[in-house]
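Researcher: Structure prediction, please.
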Amino acid sequence: MPWKEYQKMDQRMEFVLKAVSAPNFRELCREYGISAKTGYKWRERFVEHGMAGLAEKSRKPLGHADELGEKEVCEIVRLKRAHPHWGPRKIQVLYERKHGPEGPSESSFKRVLERAGLTVARRVRRSEEAGRLASGFKAEKANDVWTVDFKGWWKDQEGLRVEPLTVRDEFSRMLLEMRALADGKTESVRASFEQLFQTYGLPGAIRSDNGPPFASTHGLLGLTRLSVWWLALGINLERSRPGCPQDNGAHERMHLDIRRELEAGRIGRDQEAFEVWRKEYNTERPHEALAMQVPAQVYEPSKRLYEGTPDDIDYGSMTSRRVNKGTGQVRYAGQLYSISTVVGGWSVGLSPRPDGKVEVWFSKLLLGLLDPPTSSFTAARPRGEKKGEADHSSSTAGGAS
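Model: Predicted structure follows.
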C-alpha cells in the first residue's frame, strides 16, 4: 500500500526515525498504513543515504530508444530512403548486417521511421475464405513448386507496353526469372523455360493461372502445348481457380513490389534494370517467412537435371497408342476415339478397367475414359490427377479440340 498523498516527506522522516529502533517493525508499518516491503525500502535508503535517500527517485529508464544518437538515426533514415517500400523489420536486418546485432530494437526503428514520416499505416481488411488449389500441394523444399505469371502490363516512358514474365520458387521465394519477352506466345515462353531448366533443373510442379499460354479455357482439361510439354518432362501441373488470385497469393504479392518499385518509375524493356532488381530481391531483401533470410540463402538447384525434350513417353506395362497430330484421334481395339489435338504426336497410356472402360493417361495426368460400346471418350475433371481418383464429367468429347 503506498504512502498517503499528504505530507509524504514528513511521514517518511517520522517513520524512519522510529524504524531504526522500533521493537516491532511490522506493527510500526501497520501504524503508518504501509507494507513491510515499503517500510524496509525506506529504512534502507535512510541508513545508506540519510535524509536525502527519502526523496522520490525518477522513474525514467536509464536508457531509452528515444535517446538514439544522431548517427544511428541518420543511418536508419538513409537505409529507409534507399529501400522506401521496405518495413522496419527489413530495415533493421540491413542495419544489423552492416553494424552488428547489438543495434537498436525493432520498436526503435518503427519510432524513428514514424517520426521521420517514412511509414504508411497498414490497411487492414477482413479475412475472407482463401480457398484451395485443385491439388492442394504446399511446397516443403526448394523446387517442389515453381509459380509463373505475367506481371500486368504498364507503359514505359516512351509509351511502349511492358509485361515481364516472372517465375518464382514457392518455398525459397527465389525469383528465378523476370524477363520482358518479345510476345506472350508459347514459343517465347517455352524458350525462356528451357533456359531456366538448363540453369536450375526441373521442378516438381508448376503453378499458373488459367490464362494462355499456360492454360486454355476450351482445351481438354485446360491443356495447352506449353503445359503438355511440362507434363512430358515429368512436371506436375497446378492451377489457381478462375478469378481467385489468392490461390497464387505470394506471387501476386511479389508483383505488387514490382509495381511499386519498377512500374511506378515507368522502367521500360530494360533487362539490365530487371536483373538489378531481381538480384536485390534474391540477395538483399529479407523475408519474414524465411526467418529474415534472403531467398539466395535458402534456394538450391534441383537435382532433376534437364536433358532435353523426350521423343515420347514410356508407360511401362500399360498399353500405349500414339495420338494423331492432325486429328487428335487414337485407335484402340479397332475403333477411333477423338481425344484432343493438344496431345497430338504424343503417346497416351491405356489402362482397361473392370467395368469395361479404359483409362487414358498422358504422363501423370488422367485425361479421361474410353467407352468401347459407344466408341466415345469422356474427359476427366481437372481434379483427376492421381490414378484411381478420377472424377468424370458426363459430357462426351465429340471431336478434337
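Model: Residues 124-133, 384-401 have pLDDT under 50 and may be disordered.
Researcher: Thanks, that helps.
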